[in-house]
Amino acid sequence: MAASLTIQQAYEQQQSNQQVQASGVVTRILPDDNEGSRHQKFIVKLAHGQTILIAHNIDLAPRIPALNIGDTVTFFGEYEWNKRGGVVHWTHHDPAGRHIGGWLKHNGKTYQ
Question: Out of the domains of life, which is the source (predicted)?
């Protein structure tokens, strides 16, 4: 829950480039973004009610297969503010080793 408060505070203060960790329930699965680096995209709702977009780079990390609405996903990545609730990206390792590695956890498996 404390991680969700961090995301809530970052949203309220319009802050970006914040490392965050939380869990949320998938409320919407969006089409992959195939422009540039490919991203699996979905929206999760956090315990305090905020929704955020997860943009998971599937060129650098495996996609979550069989992701469904209602599933719980735990994530660690970088939060970027926007008026819709924000985006979490960098949910993968950095092959260059210059950025903190992130991850997604779904049904007991880690994707990084």
Answer: Bacteria
Predicted pLDDT of residue 6: 85
User: What pLDDT is attached to residue 28?
Assistant: 98
**43-57 pLDDT per residue, tens:** 999 998 999 999 999
| SS3 of the chain | CHHHHHHHHHHHCCCCCEEEEEEEEEEEEEEEECCCCCEEEEEEEECCCCEEEEEEECCCCCCCCCCCCCCEEEEEEEEECCCCCCEEECCCCCCCCCCCCCEEEECCEEEC
Range of the domain at 26: 2-111
Cβ–Cβ contacts within 10 Å for residue 112, how many? Answer: 15
> Is the pTM of the predicted complex or chain greater than 0.90?
yes
CATH number of the domain enclosing 63: 2.40.50.140
